[in-house]
Amino acid sequence: MDETGAAQTPPGSDEEAFPAYHAARCDGLAELDAQLIQCRACPRLVEWRERTGAHPRAAFRDWEYWARPVPGFGPPDAALVVVGLAPAAHGGNRTGRMFTGDASGDFLFRALHAVGLASQPTATHRGDGLELYGVRVTAPVHCAPPENKPTPTERRTCRPWLSAELALLSPHLRTVVALGAFGWQALLPVLGEAGWPLPRPRPAFGHGVQLTLPAAGHRRELQVLGSYHPSQRNTFTGRLTFDMLVELLARAAELAGLGRPGG
User: Fold this and answer.
1) DSSP three-state, residue 148
2) Grouped pLDDT means (10 residues each) for the chain, 263 residues
3) Strands 222-227 and 135-138
4) Segment holding 253, helix H or strand E
5) Residue 80, pLDDT score
6) d(Cα 136, Cα 222) in Å, to the nearest integer?
7) Fewer beta carbons within 10 Å, N or C terminal of the chain?
8) Closest CA to 142 of 223, 229, 83
């Protein structure tokens, strides 16, 4: 209560304080996801995600776009989390599921399947039967941004969702993979907020970089790995090959206690 004794009025979904207020009060991932998909705190992202949904690509003209914030995907007891950038305008923003419906997701889920962490190598829509085993995929920004470039303010506003998600996963969480420099830079301060001590200076991003965050309080030791993002720019140029991603995910799975490929 405030000084007058009146109860605080929760911020509306279009207010900047909405993520910070509601994310911290969620008791589980289902509640977190339900609150997240109502968020309208970033006007530019709201306008872009809805305008994109109202003007689909010709290939998707029969789709009813999700056009809302996209929650994380995977079991609530995941020991491994893969953190990307943000939903694609005609990928996750269309299908309503992280990394589903675009080329980056096709590459990622095929690799997760090769490692034994996904039930199938393809991801096309929310009802396609895909299951993830011991791994959850999420992002520091949950709405599709223009040109795949969220602003620093949008990233800060969205940060409480990822911070709360990692805190809720923390009893089982052992390893996190950050996809791309943006994911790495966005992830580290969130881990600090969620209770893990961060080294100074913070290590630079690179493919295969591994950072061990020591246990602190009720947070267990956490392994953080960097990987090039499976964007078409990286995969077409060979900067990230399929074998490179499979090898890194296999190492992440082993560190998370999920076994080796095929195990």
Assistant:
1) helix
2) 56 97 97 98 98 93 96 97 96 97 96 98 95 97 95 96 95 97 93 89 93 91 97 96 98 90 44
3) unpaired
4) helix 242-255
5) 98
6) 15
7) N
8) 83
Q: Tokens for 30?
A: 């289902």
- The residues, any chain, with a CB within 8 Å of residue 32's CB and separated by 6 or more, are 23, 26, 71, 161, 164, 165, 168
Rounded to 10 deg, the angle between the 152-169 and 180-193 helix axes is 60
Question: How would DSSP label each residue in 93-104?
Answer: HHHSSTT-SSHH
Going by DSSP bridges, is the β-strand pair 210-213/222-227 parallel, antiparallel, or unpaired? Answer: antiparallel
Task: Return the C-alpha torsion angle 256, 259, 261, 263, nearest 10.
Answer: -150
The tokens 């509601």 sit on which residue? Answer: 22
Place of tokens 């910070």: 20
Angstrom distances, CA of residue 170 to CA of 76, 175, 236 = 10, 10, 35
Residue type, 116: G
The amino acid at residue 37 is: I
What is the rounded distance in angstroms from the CA atom of residue 108 to the CA atom of residue 21?
32
HSE-up (13 A, CA, CB side) for residue 50: 8
